[in-house]
Each structure stands twice: as C-alpha cells, then as structure tokens.
C-alpha cells in the first residue's frame, strides 16, 4: 500500500497524525529535504514537545502539522480531517476554527488593542466574539484589566499571554506553539509555559510545542527528537535530566 497516494483513513483516536510527511524546499538547483517521510500519531489531550538541533526540521514539522505549510507528499490528519485534501480556502477556514498557533515573536497586530487581538481569529472567520469566554481566557492567562492596551504597552511575557489567549479563543482542537518561551527570560518563560499548559489542560486540548529548552520539554507528556528531517528519538514522561542526556548523546553521535 502506498501512503503517498492513498488518502489516510479517518481516525478520531488521534488528534494529529502525520503519515509519511515529506517536505522539500528548493535550494538553488538542488533541494533541501526539511522533513523526510515523518509518521507520528499524537493522542487527544496530550502535550508533545519537539526538539532537535537547528535546521533539523522542527518548524517545518509544526508548520505542516498546523496546515500553515503543505507537505510535498504524505498526509496530515487533524481530528478526522485530512488537511492535505483541502483546497486553500477550506484549509484556511479549518485552521481558523480548529487550530491555534503561538509564534515565538507573538505576531500581535500593533494598532489593535489586546481585546481586539484576542478576538481576531473569530472576526476573520466572520464570527462574533463570545464575551464571557474571552473574559475567562483573559483571566486565565493573567491579563485582567489589560483589554484596552496596545501591544507596544506590554512586556514580552504579557504579549505572549495575549498570543496564547488568541490561540485559544476559537476552542481549537490542537494548539501548536513554536518556541513560545524562546524570546523570554527563564522566569517569564516559565510563567508563560504554566499559563499555556494550564489553559490547554483545563480545556482538554492537544498541545504540540517546539523548544530548545530541556526544562520546557520536561513538562510535556512526551518528547520527539528530530535530526536531519527524521524522528530519531522518543521519550515518554521526560525529565529535564533525561532530555538533556538524550540531547548530549545525540550531539555526540
Ligand atoms: N522556506 C524555506 N525555504 C528554503 N529552505 C527552508 C525553508 N524553511 C526551512 N528551510 C530549510 O529546511 C531545513 C529545516 O528548517 P526548519 O526551520 O524546519 O528547522 P528548525 O529545526 O526549526 O531550525 P531552528 O531551530 O534553527 O529554527 C533547514 O535546512 C532550513 O534551511
């Protein structure tokens, strides 16, 4: 059976499934293989950390899994929907409704208030914000009283908390986060991670997070290690020490 051409069967026992996902980018006359036939299945409600050296394919993994980038071949299934079969407009709509994404650089809109930034995914989808839900999220991420501020009036940690509330406002199936604590000092990073983890746990959502930090990865249920576009390791119930050992061993190989 060829996974390349056969559509992936629906499977609601996984929140996110990558089936032989390959992604290449043009590189002059050559091609860079950012992901080389990666297959993983993440269960609903799980928290997965993605680690690996620079250039190993972590962001490409996240972007393909979140439907921000299309794989060159293979399938990405979120819930029971195969994203690779959707037309661009249907994919955009699916992403807005079912996927939350937190970027390292926050990606807030500078001339919109905190409240407007949080509401943005709903407004872009033509839906009305649910004020009670928005208030709940603002409170959950520690932004009470900041609804009318502009992003330029926030600290990095506060800005990232706005980005988290924005990612959760649609009650997405999965939240993807690309080094959400990478631009923050370790104390603020820990607070932001607590907020993200707590919000996702309370909502029963699935979280997939890229990080370079073994302490961040240790909070996850499992860690996937990437190298040269391949999944080369997997750790269940990680600890900071186990993750660090794994990274050291991989660096020495
Ligand atoms: N848009 C692109 N065009 C061309 N090459 C790309 C593009 N995006 C990524 N690549 C290449 O694909 C490979 C994987 O990149 P990716 O950004 O996924 O790695 P990463 O593990 O997230 O790295 P980092 O930790 O430095 O962010 C690298 O060789 C990178 O240069």
Automatic annotation (TrEMBL):
Protein name, per record: Putative ABC transport system ATP-binding protein
InterPro entries noted in UniProt: AAA+_ATPase (IPR003593), ABC_transporter-like_ATP-bd (IPR003439), ABC_transporter-like_CS (IPR017871), ABC_transpr_LolD-like (IPR015854), MacB-like_ATP-bd (IPR017911), P-loop_NTPase (IPR027417)
Source superkingdom: Bacteria
Keywords annotated in UniProt: ATP-binding, Nucleotide-binding, Transport
Organism this protein belongs to: Flavimobilis soli
Domain called ABC transporter: residue spans: 16-253
Single annotated GO MF: transmembrane transporter activity
PANTHER family: ABC TRANSPORTER RELATED, IMPORT ATP-BINDING PROTEIN
Coiled-coil boundaries: none
GO CC aspect terms: membrane protein complex; plasma membrane
